[in-house]
Design a protein that fits this description.
single chain; alpha/beta; Spore Coat Polysaccharide Biosynthesis Protein SpsA, Chain A; 7-stranded mixed sheet; 6 helices; 31% helix
Length: 208
């Protein structure tokens, strides 16, 4: 099995929720973060959290917490670079980073396996998902060999948008079905929690 490092990207500002850590919001009796960890941990060799500020607020999860290596809340790309740096220091032989958004609690359990198959089959260094006609680059597979290029893009070119950077590289897309629900549904605003509760009931029922 190919080793991977999973990173949960929890470094956002959650402005639509009035700030704070959106991943701690309750969803069907557990936090959103609990749901994500349950999906991500079995698919990765190591799992870490990317978050800025006081890391002690994640102490109950017993996972390494790493901050962005660049200042100013540069978005998901900064969190991915943080994971690449952590990999270089702790597990330099691991080639792949898998990023999980901290507001998408229903990521497919076969996600990483399909990503690795696509990377090997198409000979690419980046893979993301697509569903319902949308791509999901924040939930992606990233080769650590791109760390230098990504750092230059963030620090020297001030690039924040994922699409602007990934467009420079060969990117494979893996398509996922959206029935009975879109597995990449993400909670952006308070109203999305109602739909998330509906999906959580579907997920819970299917696991019984």
């Amino acid at each position: 099995m190919t080793e991977t490092i999973g990173v949960i990207l929890a470094g956002g500002l959650a402005r639509r929720f009035g700030g704070g850590d959106k991943c701690f919001l309750p969803l069907s009796g557990r936090s959103i973060l609990d749901w994500i960890i349950e999906r991500a941990r079995p698919q990765t060799t190591h799992l870490i959290i990317n978050a800025n500020g006081d890391p002690s607020r994640f102490r109950d999860y017993d996972l390494p917490v790493i901050a962005d290596p660049v200042e100013g809340f540069q978005g998901p790309l900064a969190g991915i670079l943080a994971a690449m740096d952590w990999a270089s220091s702790h597990h330099p032989n691991i080639k792949w980073i898998v990023s999980f958004p901290a507001d998408a609690p229903f990521i497919p359990p076969e996600l990483v396996g399909r990503y690795l198959d696509a990377a090997e089959g198409q000979g690419v260094e980046l893979v993301c998902a697509s569903s319902g006609g949308w791509t999901h680059p924040v939930c992606g597979l990233w080769s650590t060999s791109l760390a230098g290029d990504l750092r230059h893009a963030l620090v020297e070119e001030k690039i924040k948008k994922i699409g602007l950077w990934t467009a420079r590289h060969h990117l494979a897309e893996v398509k996922f079905e959206i029935e009975p629900f879109d597995p990449f549904f993400n909670i952006n605003k308070s109203g999305d929690l109602l739909r998330a509760e509906e999906i959580a009931r579907i997920v819970t029922a299917s696991s019984m």
